[in-house]
Write a sequence for this structure.
C-alpha cells in the first residue's frame, strides 16, 4: 500500500481521457467486419506482448432502465455471478487460475464485458469459454441477486456520505430532468430494492443481442484467429434488434440553483448544462475550446483563475462528456465553506468571459500543440487502444477517425470556438449545485 | 479496498521479447540514471525520484515534503511560476508529481523526441527552485483544500489516518503524507527552503527513463543537463524504530457517515530489515494475496459471497517500503451484520492461516497471476518506471524487478503459516472503527429554487 498524493485530481485526467486525439504517424490499423450473428467487430493486431484484450460492448446502459433505476447495472454486475454450470466462485477461479481477468459493468450508454488474458494455452481457451458463457447463459440466481442488491444499497449509502458524489448526482438530475440520463447507473435505493429476477432476464433477453453488440479486440492474434474468436463469443447471442436511439435531450428552460445541506468542511460547486453528442458537428471546436477553458489540467484557464491566482481549490475542471444523445457539459471545484460564493463567481465569470471572447490565438496554438504533440501517449498500450475501438464501434464513428483527428484539431479556428460556445452554452440557463453546510437550514434541523 | 494483485507491482519477467535490459549509470555528482528501452510505442516516460517523503519528517513540519512538491511547479530564476507546466503542455506532455512516505517523484510522459524538454526542466528545478513567498501562501491554501477534500470530508480516509496515528508509536509512518492540519497552518516558506536544500540534490535522486530510447543517448543527455549540478552533503535519515507493541490497541472514529467501516492492522516486517529471514516479507505478500488476491481468494469467496458478512473486504501489505509497516485488512459489514461480526470473521481468517497450511492450488493461482501480471505491466512504460523508481527510492535496488516473482513463487505453505504465527498476533493488532454520526438533514434538505438566477453577484 503506497499512499500517494497527486497534484491534480483524477477527475480532470478522466475528462481528458474521454476524448480522443490523433495523428497520422502512430495510428493503429483498425480492421472491421461483422460476425455471423450480426455483431460489429473492430480489431487491432498487436503482436509484441503475448496477451489479448477483448471487450464486448452492448447498447444496454442505464439509459435503458425504463423506470427501473439500477436495472442495467445490476444486469451487467450479475453476469459474472453465475453462468451455465458455474457459480460465482467457479467463474472467478477459472479466470484467476490462468491469470486472466473478467469484469462487467454498465455506464449510461453502454454496458460492457471485458477480459484480459495471455494468448498462450490454457489461458486463452479458458478466458474465451468463460466469457462466452457469461454473455449468453447468465444464471441471475435469486440468492446472488439478493446479495448484490444489499451490497449495492450499502454502496449507495456510502455515496451519500461523499459530498462530491451527492453533488454530481444532483447536477445530473438538474440537467436531465425526466430524461433517462438523469439517474446514475447504480440507480436509487427505491429502484434497486424493487428489481426482480424477471426484470433482469427480460433486460438481458432484449439488449444482450448480437445486433446490439460491438466486439473490440487488441492483442497478439491473427486476423483469422480474431474472426474465430468474435464468432465464438457472440455465437450464443440471438441476432435480435438494435436498441432505439435514446430520446433527444431538451435544453434547460431556465436556470436552476440547488443548495443541498451537508456536514462538510468544503462546499462542492458543480455547474452544468446539456452539452454534445458523439459525432456532433461542433465536436472539434467544443473539444479544443474546452481544452483551453478547463480540460488541460494545470494549464487551463479555470486552473489559472481558481487555483494558481487565488488558491481557492485543489481541483477545478470543465469537460464535455459526449454521449449517444447530448451528454453533459460540467464544471466543478471544492473550496472551504466561507469561500464557496467567491469560487462560484470565479467559475461563472471565467465561463462567461470565455463564451464572450473566445480563446486568444496564443491559447489556441498552445492547446493544439498539446493535443497533437501528446497524441502518441493516448494510444500507447493495448488497454488504451481497446477502449478507443469500443468507443468508435459503439458510437459509429468513422474508422479513419483517429487518422484524421490531428488535422481536424489543427483546422479549428478561434472564431469557430467562440461561435460554437455561444450557440451551445447558455450562461443564463445553467444548472448550479452547491453541496455543503447551508446557513438557512441549521435552524430547521432544530425544529 | 487497498489491494489488488497489480499493487504487488514488482515481478520478474516471463520470457517476453519486449522485456528488455535495464541500463544504469551514476554521474560524478551522484545522480543515478536508470534506463529501460521499450520500443512498443514512440513514447517515453521520464521520472525524477527523490529519497525524501513524509517518513523523513519530524514533529511540527509534517506535510512539508508534499507542500514542497507543489512548490516545485512554482518556478526558478530561469522559469517563472507556471512556466514548467506550460512548456510541458506545449510539447504534448502529461506531467504530474506524487509524494509518498518514502519518496517524492516528478514525471513527464512525452513523445520520444521530446525527452530533452523534461531533462532541461527537471535539472533546473533540482537545485534552483525560487520558492517565492507569495506563491507559497496561495499554494499552502491549495494543499489545505486538498486535505479537506481527501481526508477531512472522507470518513473512511479520516479513519485510516487516525488508525495509523494510533498503530505506530514512534515510527514516522504514524504521520499522514499530507500533514496534520495544525502543522500545515504553521508551515513557513523557510521550512521548505531548508527541506529543499537538504534533500533535493543529484546524489539523493534517481532519474528513471523508460520508453522508445537508446540508453547511451539518454546517458549523454543526462550528463549534459544534470552533470553540472553540485552534489550536497546528504546525511542518512534516522531509522526511528518502532518499539514492540505491548498489547492490542483500539480506536473509535466518530464522523458524519452513513455506513460503518473497520480497519485491522498487524505490525509486520519488510524487506531489508535486520534479524529476519529474507523470505519473511515475501511470505507476507503471499499471505495477503491468499486473503485478497482477486475475486477467487478468501475474503471475496468466504466473507462477501459465502458468509455474506462483508459488503466489501480487503487485505493489503507491501514488502517494498523503507521502514517496517503493517498487514492491513479493512471492510464494510453487509446488511444484517455489524462491525463485531466482521471483525470476528476477519479474526477467524487470521486464525485459519495460523492453524492450517494454505492449499497448493490456492498458492498456484497466485503464482500464475503474478506471472501474467508481469506481462500485462509491460503494456505501460509508466508502470515499468514506477517499479524501478520505487525500488531505488526505498533502497532495495532495481534488480529486484528480475527476482521478485521467483522469490514469491518459492514461498511454501509452511512459510505462510510461519509468518502468520509470528506477526499476526493479538498483541500486534490495532483496530479502528468508523462510528457514523448523523449528516446534516439526514435526508439531505433540498432547497431547490428552480428559475432562480444562478449568479449571486
Amino acid at each position: 500500500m503506497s499512499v500517494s498524493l497527486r497534484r491534480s485530481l483524477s477527475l480532470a485526467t478522466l475528462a481528458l481521457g474521454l476524448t480522443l486525439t490523433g495523428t497520422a504517424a502512430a495510428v493503429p490499423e483498425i480492421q472491421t467486419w461483422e460476425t455471423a450473428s450480426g455483431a460489429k467487430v473492430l480489431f487491432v493486431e498487436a503482436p509484441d506482448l503475448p496477451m489479448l484484450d477483448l471487450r464486448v460492448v452492448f447498447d444496454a446502459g442505464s439509459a435503458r432502465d425504463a423506470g427501473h433505476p439500477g436495472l442495467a447495472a445490476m444486469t451487467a454486475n450479475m453476469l459474472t455471478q453465475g453462468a451455465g454450470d458455474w457459480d460465482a466462485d467457479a467463474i472467478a477461479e477459472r479466470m484467476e487460475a490462468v491469470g486472466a481477468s473478467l469484469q462487467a459493468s454498465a455506464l449510461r450508454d453502454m454496458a460492457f464485458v471485458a477480459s484480459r488474458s495471455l494468448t498462450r494455452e490454457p489461458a486463452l481457451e479458458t478466458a474465451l469459454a468463460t466469457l462466452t458463457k457469461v454473455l449468453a447463459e447468465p444464471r441471475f440466481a435469486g440468492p446472488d441477486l439478493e446479495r448484490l442488491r444489499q451490497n449495492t444499497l450499502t454502496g449507495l449509502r456510502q455515496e451519500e456520505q461523499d459530498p462530491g458524489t451527492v453533488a454530481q448526482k444532483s447536477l445530473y438530475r438538474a440537467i436531465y430532468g425526466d430524461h433517462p440520463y438523469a439517474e446514475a447507473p447504480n440507480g436509487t435505493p427505491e429502484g434497486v430494492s424493487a428489481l426482480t429476477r424477471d426484470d433482469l432476464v427480460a433486460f438481458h433477453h432484449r439488449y444482450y443481442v448480437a445486433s446490439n453488440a460491438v466486439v473490440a479486440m487488441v492483442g497478439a492474434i491473427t486476423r483469422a484467429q480474431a474472426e474465430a474468436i468474435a464468432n465464438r463469443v457472440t455465437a450464443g447471442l440471438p441476432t435480435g434488434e438494435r436498441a432505439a436511439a435514446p430520446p433527444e435531450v431538451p435544453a434547460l428552460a431556465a436556470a436552476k440553483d440547488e443548495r443541498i445541506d451537508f456536514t462538510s468542511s468544503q462546499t462542492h460547486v458543480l455547474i452544468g448544462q446539456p452539452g454534445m453528442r458523439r459525432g456532433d458537428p461542433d465536436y472539434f471546436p467544443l473539444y479544443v475550446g474546452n481544452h483551453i477553458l478547463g480540460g488541460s489540467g494545470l494549464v487551463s484557464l479555470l486552473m489559472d483563475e481558481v487555483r494558481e491566482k487565488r488558491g481557492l481549490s485543489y481541483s477545478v475542471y470543465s469537460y464535455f462528456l459526449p454521449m449517444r444523445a447530448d451528454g453533459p457539459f460540467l464544471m466543478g471545484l471544492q473550496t472551504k465553506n466561507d469561500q464557496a460564493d467567491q469560487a462560484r463567481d470565479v467559475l461563472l465569470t471565467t465561463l462567461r468571459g470565455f463564451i464572450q471572447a473566445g480563446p486568444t490565438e496564443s491559447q489556441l496554438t498552445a492547446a493544439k500543440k498539446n493535443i497533437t504533440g501528446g497524441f502518441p501517449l493516448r494510444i500507447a498500450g493495448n488497454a488504451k487502444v481497446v477502449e478507443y475501438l469500443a468507443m468508435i464501434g459503439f458510437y459509429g464513428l468513422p474508422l479513419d477517425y483517429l487518422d484524421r483527428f490531428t488535422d481536424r484539431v489543427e483546422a479549428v479556428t478561434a472564431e469557430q470556438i467562440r461561435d460554437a460556445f455561444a450557440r451551445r452554452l447558455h450562461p443564463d440557463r445553467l444548472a448550479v449545485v452547491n453541496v455543503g453546510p447551508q446557513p438557512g437550514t441549521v435552524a430547521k434541523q432544530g425544529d | 479496498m487497498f489491494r489488488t494483485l497489480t499493487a504487488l507491482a514488482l515481478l520478474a519477467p516471463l520470457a517476453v521479447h519486449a522485456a528488455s535490459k535495464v541500463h544504469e549509470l551514476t554521474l560524478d555528482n551522484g545522480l543515478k540514471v536508470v534506463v529501460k528501452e521499450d520500443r512498443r510505442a514512440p513514447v517515453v516516460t521520464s521520472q525524477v525520484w527523490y529519497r525524501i517523503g513524509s517518513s523523513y519528517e519530524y514533529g511540527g513540519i509534517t506535510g512539508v515534503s508534499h507542500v514542497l512538491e507543489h512548490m516545485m511547479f512554482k518556478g526558478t530564476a530561469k522559469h517563472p511560476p507556471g512556466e514548467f507546466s506550460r512548456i510541458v503542455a506545449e510539447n504534448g506532455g502529461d506531467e504530474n508529481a506524487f509524494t509518498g512516505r518514502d519518496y517524492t517523484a516528478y514525471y513527464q510522459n512525452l513523445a520520444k523526441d521530446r525527452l530533452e524538454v523534461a531533462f532541461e526542466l527537471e535539472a533546473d528545478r533540482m537545485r534552483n527552485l525560487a520558492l517565492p513567498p507569495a506563491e507559497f501562501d496561495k499554494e499552502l491554501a491549495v494543499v489545505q483544500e486538498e486535505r479537506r477534500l481527501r481526508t477531512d470530508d472522507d470518513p473512511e480516509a479520516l479513519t485510516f489516518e487516525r488508525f495509523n496515528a494510533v498503530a505506530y508509536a514512534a515510527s514516522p509512518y504514524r504521520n499522514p503524507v499530507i500533514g496534520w492540519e495544525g502543522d500545515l497552518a504553521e508551515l513557513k516558506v523557510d521550512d521548505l527552503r531548508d527541506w529543499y536544500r537538504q534533500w533535493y540534490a543529484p546524489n539523493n535522486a534517481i532519474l528513471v527513463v523508460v520508453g522508445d530510447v537508446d540508453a547511451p543517448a539518454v546517458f549523454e543527455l543526462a550528463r549534459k543537463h544534470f552533470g553540472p549540478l553540485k552534489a550536497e552533503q546528504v546525511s542518512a535519515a534516522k531509522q526511528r524504530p518502532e518499539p514492540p507493541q505491548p498489547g492490542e490497541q483500539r480506536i473509535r472514529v466518530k464522523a458524519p457517515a452513513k455506513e460503518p467501516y473497520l480497519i485491522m492492522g498487524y505490525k509486520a516486517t519488510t524487506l531489508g530489515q535486520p534479524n529476519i529471514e529474507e523470505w519473511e516479507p515475501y511470505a507476507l505478500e503471499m499471505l495477503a494475496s491468499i486473503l485478497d488476491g482477486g475475486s477467487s481468494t478468501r475474503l471475496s469467496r468466504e466473507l462477501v459471497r459465502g458468509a455474506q458478512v462483508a459488503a466489501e473486504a480487503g487485505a493489503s501489505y507491501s514488502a517494498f517500503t523503507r521502514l517496517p509497516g503493517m498487514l492491513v485488512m479493512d471492510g464494510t459489514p453487509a446488511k444484517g451484520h455489524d462491525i463485531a461480526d466482521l471483525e470476528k470473521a476477519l479474526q477467524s481468517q487470521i486464525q485459519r492461516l495460523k492453524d492450517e497450511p494454505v492449499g497448493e492450488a490456492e498458492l498456484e493461482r497466485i503464482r500464475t497471476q503474478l506471472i501474467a501480471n508481469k506481462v500485462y505491466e509491460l503494456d505501460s512504460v509508466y508502470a515499468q518506471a514506477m517499479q524501478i523508481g520505487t525500488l531505488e527510492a526505498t533502497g532495495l535496488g532495481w534488480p529486484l524487478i528480475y527476482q521478485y516473482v521467483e522469490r514469491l513463487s518459492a514461498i511454501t505453505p509452511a512459510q505462510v503459516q510461519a509468518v502468520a504465527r509470528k506477526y499476526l498476533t493479538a498483541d500486534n493488532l490495532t483496530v479502528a472503527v468508523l462510528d457514523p454520526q448523523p449528516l446534516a438533514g439526514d435526508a439531505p434538505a433540498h432547497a431547490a429554487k428552480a428559475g432562480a438566477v444562478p449568479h449571486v453577484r
Observations:
- The radius of gyration of chain A is 23 Å.
- Chain A touches chain B through 103 residues (CB under 8 Å).
- Residues 1-25, 442-447 of chain A have pLDDT under 50 and may be disordered.
